[in-house]
Amino acid sequence: MTELIDHRPAAPPGLRGVEVTSTTVGDVRGHEGRYHYRQYDVIDLARTRSLEAVWHVLLVGHLPDPDEEAGFRRRLGDLRVDAAERLGDVLATPAAGPGPLDTLRTAMSQAGAVLGCRALYDLDPTERAEDLLRLVAATPVLVAGTWRTTRGEHPVAPDPTLGHAADLLRMIGDVAPGDEAVRAVEQYLVLTTDHGFNASTFTARVVASTGADAASCLVAALGALSGPLHGGAPARALELIDELAVLMPDDDAIDRAIRARLGRGERLMGFGHAVYRTDDPRSLLLRDIARTLGGPRIDAAERIEAGALAALADAHPERPLRTNVELYTAVVLERCGVPAGLFSPMFATARVAGWAAHVLEQAAQRTLFRPSARYEGPWPLVPLAHGAATDGEAATDTG
Ligand code: ACO
């Protein structure tokens, strides 16, 4: 009892590089600057396929033929309508959190109860998929509905004849969105549906490994996503753009302001990535989309990007730090009429489908995550006095 002996292997901080399970959902190849869903390059998918086709790949397992795609689109539309009808009370009086993603997290928890999600452990694979698809379809209804009612506006009922992206935009703004905005948002949602074993996906899988219900998996993942180092960054990236844009067109002033931030130890939102060691392919496509959409912020974003990349290269010559998905997400979503407060919930609207694919896979694997932590507190154990011992007595006993 005097010596603390621990022969368990130590994982690197943050589990970086450790393979904790296997997956067929997809992967990120950080040194190559590419990622894939099942066997398809995601940039190719985003350029050529609909959101529904991509989600069919992830949730059903294969690229759909036109009939399958149309059926899946109808199914999602019907489930949006069903969710709106059954979740009316949740939408009418949402428990508003400090941010819209927190509001969504609470609403998702309520949705799990109202829609009757049951422990994955007790369900067969078809029933699990059904519970998850209901929640995936409910997400834009919750995002748009709670956003509107917390502002004193009425929720907009879903239109099952529309695609998921178009209906999401319509339910947010209560106007028919333009084709260009719909396609841009659809591509954004394709790009952000899944991305390897990130913190929120891992979280969803940990909860799924316990056999908990589908909503619990997604609620936990939403909590992980809400942090500024993960999905909470895009609104802060827009702030960065707007704060530095006032210095335009003086690129030297922008450069100085960026270096001053780094000098204060600040992180530049929209830059750096845990896995990519070269360009983040999502940022490249989103920059193309942002250029096509035009608007006042794209020029500022590109000037800031140039200054930030130079400053980050000087500050960290040992490590490539490039633009991540969030910088041009902010530009694209803002241009498509999405309020900055909804940037992170938009991310969540896509990512729920990725989490769902992982939850299904994890539930089928039936392995409980149960790692260890190295105990680094005081040792040896303190013998307790029998009877009503106080902290003081215990300390005395230790001598
Ligand atoms: N701005 C300034 N410095 C940075 C940035 C940044 N954006 N990113 C990394 N660094 C620095 C770190 O301060 C650290 O320096 P140090 O060694 O002197 O302490 C070094 O680069 C390595 O940083 P790590 O934290 O080890 O890198 P990690 O891979 O863990 O971080 C992360 C990845 C969290 C995304 C980080 O780059 C970051 O904080 N970026 C800003 C927030 C952001 O944009 N988040 C969205 C990520 S994309 C997504 O989740 C969808």
Task: Describe the structure using short key phrases.
binds acetyl coenzyme *A; mainly alpha; 57% helix; disordered C terminus; 17 helices; 399 residues; 3-stranded antiparallel sheet
Q: Explain this structure to me?
A:
By secondary structure, the chain is mainly alpha-helical. It has helices at 42-48, 51-59, 66-86, 88-92, 100-114, 125-149, 164-173, 179-192, 199-209, 214-225, 234-245, 251-263, 281-293, 297-315, 325-335, 343-365, 391-398, and strands at residues 26-29, 34-37, 40-41. The chain has a three-stranded antiparallel beta sheet with strand order 1-2-3. A hairpin with a 4-residue loop joins β1 and β2. α5 (100-114) crosses α6 (125-149), α8 (179-192) runs antiparallel to α15 (325-335) and α11 crosses α15. Mean pLDDT is 93; it is low at 392-399. Residues 229-231, 233, 262, 267-274, 316, 319, 321, 324-326 line the site of acetyl coenzyme *A.
Largest sheet: 3 strands, antiparallel
Question: What is the helix content?
Answer: 55-70%
Determine the structural class based on helices, strands and strand pairing. mainly alpha
Structural shape: globular
**Number of separate helices:** 17
Order of helices and strands: EEEHHHHHHHHHHHHHHHHH
**Distance between the amino and carboxyl termini:** 16 Å
**How big is the Rg?**
23 Å
Secondary structure layout plus pairing:
Blueprint: E1 26-29, E2 34-37, E3 40-41, H1 42-48, H2 51-59, H3 66-86, H4 88-92, H5 100-114, H6 125-149, H7 164-173, H8 179-192, H9 199-209, H10 214-225, H11 234-245, H12 251-263, H13 281-293, H14 297-315, H15 325-335, H16 343-365, H17 391-398
Antiparallel strand pairs: 1-2, 2-3
Helix pairs in contact: 1-8, 3-6, 5-6, 5-10, 6-7, 6-16, 7-8, 8-13, 8-15, 8-16, 9-10, 9-16, 10-16, 11-14, 11-15, 12-14, 13-15, 14-15
The site of acetyl coenzyme *A has 19 residues, from helix 15.
